[in-house]
Amino acid sequence: MTYNINEKGYYGEFGGAYIPEMLYPNVEELRENYLKIMAEPEFQKEFNQLLKDYVGRPSPLYFAKRLSEKFNTKIYLKREDLNHTGAHKINNTIGQILMAKRLGKHRIIAETGAGQHGVATATVCALMGLECIVYMGEIDIARQAPNVARMKMLGATVVPALSGSRTLKDATNEAIRDWINNPVDTHYIIGSVVGPHPYPDMVARFQAVVSEEIQWQLQEHEGKTKPDYVVACVGGGSNAAGAYYHFLEDTNIKLIAVEAAGKGIHSGESAATSVLGKEGIIHGSKTLLMQTPDGQITEPYSISAGLDYPGVGPMHAHLYKSGRAQFISITDDQAMKAGLELCQLEGIIPAIESSHALAVFEQKTFLPEDVVVLSLSGRGDKDLETYINYFNL
C-alpha cells in the first residue's frame, strides 16, 4: 500500500476533484502544470532562496529538555513558530505565489480560519505586488482581530463570510464562489491539504520542506535521520502533511495526528473528524467529514480557530482509514493546559493548534529511548486573548 497520491489524484479511496463545470478550466490548468513548474530549476532556486532569506528557514529542531524530563522521553520541537509570519503557512504561500505568477495570474484569493494563512497570503502578495482578497468567517474575524489588522496592513482586502457558522468552512465557500466568477486572472491559494486535486498534493509538497529538514537535523542531534514518532495537530492538515511527508512510506516511523475534540468528542461541540466523520465530499474532494444522517455538514467547534474544520484532507483520511497514522482527539481543556505547560517548562508560547499536539504526552506513554518529533506549527501571539480569558491572566 502506498500513502502518497496516485496519478488520478487519490490517496487510496480519498481525494479527486469534484468541482462545478465552471471551475474545471482553472483546476485543470493547475493540474497540468504544477509538477512541471515545481520541477523547473529556476522555480526551485527562487522558492528555496525565499524560504532561506525571507522566511528564515531552516526552522530549528529544538530538543525540549525540561519537557522531555517530565515525560521521560526525547521530545524534539520542529519550530515552525519561528518562521516569518509565525507559522508553517508561509511555506505553502511562497510556493503558490510563484506558481500563480508563472501561470500569469495577477489576482489572488484565499480563505482563512485562524488568520495565519490569510496573513501568509497577504504577505506574499505584498512581496510580489499582487492584489489580495481574503475571505474569513465573521466569527473568526472577531476572535482573531490582530491577524485581521495584519492582513489589512499588508494591503489585503478582508471580506467577511456571513453565511452558515461564519467560520472557516463558510469562508472557503465564499472563496470558491469568487473563483467561479473570476476564472481567468485569479489564483486561489488554498491554505491546507484540502480541496480538489491537485491542491492536497501541491500543498503537501510545498510543506514537505519540514520533514526534509527534520531528517538532516535529527542526524545532527541523534546520529540518525528517522524519528520513532512524528506528532502534529490536524485541522485540514497541512502542517501534519509537511511533517509526515518524507516518512509516509516508512512504516517503522509512527505517525500521530491530533485533532480537536472541543468540549468532548460526543458533546456536539467538537471537530474530531476521525471519530465522527463519514465519507463525503467537501470543497471538491472526497474525504471524511462530519455530517448529519442526511448528509448535511455538521458545524465543527474548537477553542482553536485553526482546527474547527468539519473535514480533514484526503491524505489524512487515507492515513486514518489505512491505520498508517494514529488519530488522537484532544479537548479544549487538555490543549490549553498543555500550552501553558510548554510556556512554563520551555519558555515557548505555542499557538493553541500546536497545544493540541503537545497534549499527546498526557494521553500516551512513550519509551525513554523514543525520539518524538512534534511539529510546533505556530506561535501563540495570535491566541493571547484566548489564553488570557481561559486562565484569567
From TrEMBL:
Pathway: Amino-acid biosynthesis; L-tryptophan biosynthesis; L-tryptophan from chorismate: step 5/5. Keywords: Amino-acid biosynthesis, Aromatic amino acid biosynthesis, Lyase, Pyridoxal phosphate, Tryptophan biosynthesis. It comes from the Bacteria. Signal peptide: none annotated. The modification N6-(pyridoxal phosphate)lysine is found at residue 89. One of its GO terms (cellular component) is cytoplasm. It catalyses: (1S,2R)-1-C-(indol-3-yl)glycerol 3-phosphate + L-serine = D-glyceraldehyde 3-phosphate + L-tryptophan + H2O. Residues 56-378 form the Tryptophan synthase beta chain-like PALP domain. Tetramer of two alpha and two beta chains. PANTHER family: TRYPTOPHAN SYNTHASE, TRYPTOPHAN SYNTHASE-RELATED. NCBIfam families: trpB (TIGR00263). Belongs to the TrpB family. The beta subunit is responsible for the synthesis of L-tryptophan from indole and L-serine. This is Tryptophan synthase beta chain. It comes from Bizionia arctica.
